[in-house]
Amino acid sequence: MKPFLDPMVVRPSDGLYFSQTMRGEIVGGLTVPHPPGTGQGQTSSASFLPRMASALCRLVPRLGALGVLRAWSGFYDDTPDGFPILGEDARLPGFYHANGFGGHGFMLAPSATRRVARGVMGEATDLDPTLFGPGRFLDPARPSTAERLQLG
Ligand SMILES: Cc1cc2nc3c(=O)[nH]c(=O)nc-3n(C[C@H](O)[C@H](O)[C@H](O)COP(=O)(O)OP(=O)(O)OC[C@H]3O[C@@H](n4cnc5c(N)ncnc54)[C@H](O)[C@@H]3O)c2cc1C
C-alpha cells in the first residue's frame, strides 16, 4: 500500500500490533496464548490468519483488501512476573541467566547484556537482584506482576 501509517499501532486488549514498512507492507501480529507444555504455536497455522485478519480489519477495514505475503511464528519466553531473568544463579555459581525477555528481547538486548557481561567479569552492576535475579522465584511471597501486553 502507499504509505499512510507512521506510528506502530498497538492494542493492549488483545496484543494486536502492526506498522507499515518503507515498502508499504503491513507487518503485525497478535498474541495467541497456549496452555503451558502443549508445544503449540511453534509453526504458523491456517487458523491464525483469519484471527489476525479479523482483528486487523475491525480496526482498519480497508486493510481487508490486502493479500498475505508470509507468516511466521515464535515463542515469547515469558516469566511468571513478566520481568527478564538476569544474573548469576546462586545455586550454580558461575552460571549466568539472560533470558525471559518476552516480546522485547531485541530492544532490551544491548542494555541487558552489557549489564550481565559486567556481572560475569566481576564488576558492579545496577541490576537489582530482587527484581531480575533468578533467585526471586525461590521466594514464595513474591507478588506476581505479569505483563499482559506482548509486542512482537
Ligand atoms: C513473533 C515474535 C516477534 C518478536 N518481535 C520482537 C520485536 O519486535 N522487538 C523485540 O525487541 N523483540 C521481539 N521479539 C522477542 C525477541 O525475539 C526475543 O526476546 C529474543 O530473540 C530472545 O533472545 P534470546 O537470545 O534470549 O533467545 P533466542 O533468540 O530464542 O535464542 C536462543 C537460542 O538458543 C538455542 N538453543 C535452545 N536450546 C538449546 C540447546 N539445548 N543447546 C544449544 N542451543 C540451544 C536456540 O536454537 C536459539 O538459537 C519477538 C519474538 C517473537 C516470537
Highlighted features:
two-stranded antiparallel sheet; alpha+beta; 2 domains; three-stranded antiparallel sheet; 152 residues; elongated; binds flavin-adenine dinucleotide
Structure description:
The protein has 2 domains: 9-65, no CATH class; 85-138, no CATH class. The chain has helices at residues 48-59, 105-120, 129-132; strands at residues 9-11, 16-20, 26-29, 85-88, 96-99. Helix content is 21%, strand content 13%. The mean pLDDT is 88. Bound molecules: flavin-adenine dinucleotide. The site of flavin-adenine dinucleotide has 12 residues, from α2.
| Separation, N- and C-terminal Cα atoms | 22 Å
N-to-C series of helices and strands: EEEHEEHH
Return the structural class: alpha+beta
Bound small-molecule species? flavin-adenine dinucleotide
Radius of gyration: 19 Å
